[in-house]
Amino acid sequence: MSKRNEFGDFQTPINLATKVVGSLSDRFGTPGLVIEPTCGMGNFIDAAFSRWGDKCLYSGSEINPEYCVSARQRFSETDRVSIMERDFFSTEWEEVFSACSAGYTLVLGNPPWITNSELGILKSSNLPDKANFQGLRGFDAKTGKANFDIAEWMIIRLVEALLDGGVLAMLCKTATARKVLTHFWKTGVPISEEGVFLIDAKKSFDVSVDACLLVVRAGGMTEQFASVYESLDATTAMSRFGILNGELVANIDDYERCREIDGFSNYKWRSGIKHDASKVMELHFREGGFVNGFGEKCQLESEYVYPLLKSSDVGNGRLVPRKYVIVTQQKVGEPTDTIKTKAPKTWKYLESHASILDARKSSIYKKRARFSIFGIGGYSFSEWKVSISGLYKRLRFEAVPPVDGKPMMVDDTCYFFPCETEGEAKFWAGLLNSEICLRFLHSLVFFDAKRPVNIDVLRRIDFAQLARKMGVFGQALVYLEKAGMYEGDQQPLLVFEDTPKYKTKNKPTD
Ligand SMILES: C[S@@+](CC[C@H](N)C(=O)[O-])C[C@H]1O[C@@H](n2cnc3c(N)ncnc32)[C@H](O)[C@@H]1O
Q: What tens digit of pLDDT does each residue of 319-332 get?
């Protein structure tokens, strides 16, 4: 990891800082105090000073002593700017903000672009204490989740310390902005005038990530939604996201237009097969035989081998399997030692790769039958399925056919529900790909997320209502009556999307 990355250090180009300040000046007027909590070389303070000059006070903090020296030199000719060498995490921000005697406090900047797991690597690289991020022990307790952006924590901390009327404007990932706002909305932190102004992070920082200027005013009545602007100059919002009926909605106006189909899914959505050993369990069919991920020819009975579609197949509408998967169980928890007698070659193959299979890290494999898999049940063996990739921005449902009389499996980055017949699968795939259903999904899906489509979103499609809207309820009824035939719970740990819950001081947890 480069030193720049270790510090989440992406200095904001002065032209972007100038644009940000211009946009804030137009929106909120001249502040009384401008604070930059991780000011680096001071580009934001420079841009702010150029805009507002002696009309306000400026204070920058930074952990890197070299940056502090260069920032101090930069502002040596004015007594309006002070630069402190200090660590964000040991700073009493309430005290810093209380220095504002007139006008409003503007907390401005660009906090480090780094996650706490990347910081784990940083710690092991044995940097000098002072250059290390401090106060991290409280992070997990504060956010209640394992991996998160440090910026997320910093922004929450700053807004909680801001007095009513103060404004925070920070460059960050759009996903960070969303998480921070959701936290405020769900925990009832009073904020208002929430705005997300999209920026081109590739152009400014040479990083391919969806980024924005997050703007929040502390205090006021929160409406639990934020306006999204196409750029820093935009004056009219292109969309709004926020909380509706307790749920996060990506596009409130689109959602309102198709909310009739928001309900409970009649079919049970599942995630695909999980084995965590693709080089052993996934195979190609070449020159009349199976070849594993190590390029080894494998002697296997066909009984336990099934055609497999990966997310890239389902996401691109490619329904001819390029791979096969060894399915060691018909349902979770089933004994596997029967394979020994039923399919001795397969057992031998599994045993010869036991060093990999037995070493699978996830705790779900502990105390399970040897060579266990997950995401498997009666539903996996239905002849037909309707499936969607969880990773692709292009939302498209596919009717997945059997191959050579065998049901196709989908991997654990796909979601699906089982169907008995081709007619049923094609009927539902058609309805799910209808304009109204896709618009509904688009209104709920955040495309900057790692898995834009998740099971919580899919569960909200009311199939019966969708069929009614499309005028085919009569036909749908035939299928809906049997929709629950593959019931039975899937392991909850296969549902990847755990919403992070923050636990902040003085605030009720949700
Ligand atoms: C993304 S850069 C932004 C710099 C500056 N705000 C700008 O926009 O040009 C993040 C800055 O945070 C500083 N930083 C990282 N950890 C810090 C901490 N614990 N306390 C204070 N500053 C820190 C880094 O040294 C770096 O200068």
A: 999 999 999 999 99
